[in-house]
Amino acid sequence: MEQMKVLVVGLGLIGGSMCKAMRRFTNHLVYGYDTDGAVLEQAVRDGAILEAVPKSGFHEFDLIMVCLHPRAAKAFFDAHIPDFRPGAMLTDVCGIKGALVEHVTELAAEYGQRYVGMHPMAGKERFGYPFSEGSLFLGANCIITPIPQTSKAAVCILEQLVHDLGFAHIVETTPEGHDAMIAYTSQLAHVVSSAYVKSPTLEQENGYSGGSFQDMTRTATLNEEMWASLFLENRKPLLFELNTLIENLQAYRDAIDRDDYTTLVELLRDGRIRKEQNLLSHAKDRRE
Question: For residue 117, what is the enclosing H or E element?
């Protein structure tokens, strides 16, 4: 892949990991921009970026990757797209695509730039630059969200970059399709985990917990400002999933309350079968 001069905006967990991964696995020249000067200094010391870039230097880059929360990302694009050179490629890693993709696509086209939305499906229970690492994306999934106006050449460049960073599987879908699926596969899990740890029993769990507890509570140590923004930006799909979950939980609750062994077995059997079918489907996809 031809060497690019890349600017990563926002050096949190994902942005910092993107910098480190590009430095580790590609020959691209990686620079950083962040409002936190201490983070930029640490990233330079770590070798994650070659140097920090002032706003006056934005026009120098082939690729600008914005790693901010959805509202902050939109505000950044609105403020700085005129500062990027014609022909530059733009992308973001926001967990919600929705109206952002269409908005930035149209805005970038006004200035002769190409935009492609993406969402790396990788993360940790901790956030911020100190927890970033170049191996974060190895074996992970990445979602690309082109629309009819999106440059096919830009999609190919981004997919090659994603492949070089170690992602195992790339999915192309619409922004709307992305948001509907993410409400189920990611956002719902974070809501449930956050609610689950609010039981008063949490204070006595030490010594009683195992893998199930760890799996259920891992994502409760989230970045509340980022996830609140994501939830509200994706309100309709997330409410659908929450209402579905509440309805299903009520069925389990009712069966337990009635001491209804037969119904409870049926509910549990149905859940087991659905998950087994899901695992078989994944195994088939890997073979193909």
Answer: strand 114-121
Q: Where are the domains of the chain?
A: 5-173, 178-234
How many CB atoms are located within 10 Å of the residue 241 CB?
20
* 255-258 contact pairs (CB < 8 A, 24+): none
With 0-12 CB in 10 A as exposed, 13-18 as middle and 19+ as buried, what is 196?
Answer: middle
> Residue 287 above 70 pLDDT?
no
Query: What's the helix, strand, coil split of the chain in %, to 5?
Result: 60, 10, 30
118-127, 191-200, 243-252: which has the minimum mean pLDDT? 118-127
- Non-local (6+) Cβ contacts of 115 within 8 A are 89, 90, 91, 101, 104, 105, 107, 108, 150, 154
Collect all residues with Cβ–Cβ distance below 8 Å to 175 and sequence separation of at least 6. 97, 98, 99, 100, 101, 102, 117, 145, 147
Instruction: Give the closest residue to 65 by CA, choosing from 43, 87, 88.
Output: 88
CATH number for 5-173: choose from 3.90.1150.10, 3.40.50.720, 3.90.1310.10, 3.40.30.10.
3.40.50.720
- The per-residue DSSP string of 174-200 comes to -HHHHHHHHIIIIIHHHHHHHHHTTSG
Phi, psi (5° rounding) for residue 117?
-85, 145
How far apart (Å, rounded) are the C-alpha atoms in residues 210 and 227?
Answer: 26
